[in-house]
Structures are given as structure tokens and as C-alpha cells.
Design goal:
Distance between the termini: 28 Å
CATH superfamily: Aldolase class I
CATH topology: TIM Barrel
Number of strands: 8
Strand order of the largest sheet: 1-8-7-6-5-4
Shape: globular
Radius of gyration: 18 Å
Oligomer: single chain
CATH class: Alpha Beta
Bound molecules: 3-hydroxy-3-methylglutaryl-coenzyme A, magnesium ion
Order of helices and strands: EHHEHEHEHHEHEHEHEHHH
CATH architecture: Alpha-Beta Barrel
Number of helices: 12
Structural class: alpha/beta
Largest sheet: 6 strands, parallel
Helix content: 40-55%
Amino acid sequence: MLDKLPERVSVYEVSARDGLQNEARPVPLDAKIRLVRALIESGLQRIELTSFVSPKWVPQLADATDLVAAIGQPEGVTLSALCPNTKGFERASDAGLQEIAVFLSSSETHNKKNTNKSIEQSLRVFAEVVPAAKQANMRVRAYVSTVWGCPYEGEIDSARSLQITKELLDMGCYQVSLGDTIGVGTPLQTRRISDVFLNELDQERLALHLHDTRGTALANALVGLQMGFRHFDASVGGLGGCPYAPGAAGNLATEDLVFMLHGMGIETGVDLPKLIEAGRVAEAVVGRRLPGKVHQAGLPALRT
Ligand code: HMG
Ligand code: MG
């Protein structure tokens, strides 16, 4: 297994979106700007900034346009934002973003609660949004949620998640990120799911989006890495969750992922001490202790 490990892995940072969408206390725009600048400073090259969703559904990210304007287009960094429909795409495009991420769930109930649509309806919306975005020279990523399990429907058939993923890729999404939305995955399950996806699809077209709700995200990431995944979503400090998925607290912490990868000799392009600084900014921004392990423990003296 270990001889299959890559030289480099790509990290897609989601704290400013998946993290901040979940905060009960409003985070002011200038604090979000501080967080994103610290993330960029750490060398992260793919950052999801915010969401162009309905501000009635997610008021935490209602300042999306202002955040994108404040961050501008830093050299060598790809910025993205969630986008559920044509209105979201138009707002993202007007703001000047070059990438968006569409999203849906592989469970009907979660998709309905999250977006007020059936899976079929979501796919019909994306069949319009994705070509329109590509026509506007934007890249489109996609998420398929609840692949490891749904808070309402329990276990999800991976064949269904795979079928939805293929439809999104066929529409023109360049990559689909598979979500363990509520952090219920365990390693052997991750191996089974990895087999289902990697047997049929190129590893470059897939990513893992793991929540650490029950402490298994890093173990699942390691299994995914060994199975062939090369793109991982993570959130500094372990900030994160989903407001429409009860119990979905905490994404895989970016520092924990990067610490593990660097320790295994795998490059990420991220400066870990600076990333730890960004985690401190994140903690100050939300005003509470964040759960990431490396965030809390820091770097071991012998390894700095
Ligand atoms: P709806 O209420 O059915 O929408 O919501 P609608 O089309 O009927 O519109 C209702 C109102 O919202 C209208 O305004 C629209 O203009 C407005 P009104 O006429 O009442 O004043 N509206 C918008 N405004 C701004 N931007 C937009 C937009 N769209 C409509 N894009 C909708 C449907 C999809 C909009 C809503 O359900 C929604 O915004 N949901 C987003 C929920 C969300 O963001 N969830 C968290 C992200 S998903 C996640 O965290 C999982 C992930 O991390 C992966 C994983 O962990 O697995 C990605
Ligand atoms: Mg998520």
C-alpha cells in the first residue's frame, strides 16, 4: 500500500465557507478578510471563500460579494464559492470569481432540507448553471454530500452517489468532492467507497471532503490517500459543519492533514507554521476554542 503514495497532494481549504456558515455568532467582514489573508499567506492555493446561496438560508455568508471584492485575485490562488442556482452563479460571476462549486446530496431528504429541491431538480438546475459558468470561462467544482451516511436516511448506496457524481462530471464539472457530511465514516467503509469511485473514475476528478465529527476524518483521509485520492478538502483549526445536517460539527483540520502528509514526505505547498498562525486567526475570529489537534498541540520541538 505505502509504495502507492504520491509526492504531492492538493489541499482545498474550506474554513471561510464550511466553517463560517455554521457559526451562531455573526463574524464581521473585516474578520473574514483577516482569516482569508492568513490562509493565503500560509501558501494554500485553493480556497473556498464563501457561498452565493440565499442569505435567508445562510445569513452568515450574506456578505459574499464584499468578501470576494476585498480579497481580489491573489497571484497563484484559485478562489471559489458555493453556488446553488443561476442566481448564485450570476452573483459569483458579477463578483469576479473564476470558479464556483455546485452542491447536492446523495440522499433525497438531506438535499430537500439543504436546498429545498429533489436530487432530480438540483441536477436540472446544474445542467443549466454548469454550461453557463463554463461559457463565462469559470471552472465548476461539485460536491456530493452524505456519501458515508445521512442524518435522516442512514446508510447511502454508493452506487447512487457514483451515478450522481458521473452526471456532474458529464455536465462539465472538473472535479467532484465526496462528502462525509456528518462525519460517520470509518476506514473500511472508506476503502469500500474508494474502490467504488476509483475503479470507474480518474483520481484527478475526485476529492474527499471529510468531517471529523466522530474523530475519524484523518483515518479516513489516510485510507483514501492509500487507495489513490490526491485531493483533500480541509478547514483550518477544524472549523466547520453544515447548518442543515444536525451533528455536522468540524471538518478535517487542515493542520492535521498537512502535518500527517509532510511527516510522510508528501508535499502540499503549505507552510505549516504559517498555517498554524492562520488557525490562531480563525480561533480569534470565531471567539472560541477550535478542535484541531495540531492547532491545539502545536508542532513538536524536534520537528520544527
Ligand atoms: P428556495 O427558498 O427554494 O429558493 O431556496 P427560491 O428560488 O424559491 O428563492 C427564495 C428567495 O431566495 C428569493 O428571494 C430568491 O431571490 C432568493 P425573495 O424573492 O424571497 O426575496 N435566492 C437567492 N438569493 C441570493 N442568492 C441566491 C439565491 N437563490 C434564491 N443564490 C436555495 C433554494 C437553494 C436558494 C436555498 O435552499 C439555499 O440557499 N440553500 C443553501 C443551503 C446551504 O448553503 N447549506 C450549506 C452548504 S452545503 C454543505 O455544507 C455541504 C458541503 O460542505 C459538503 C459536505 O459536507 O458534504 C458542501
Ligand atoms: Mg462540508
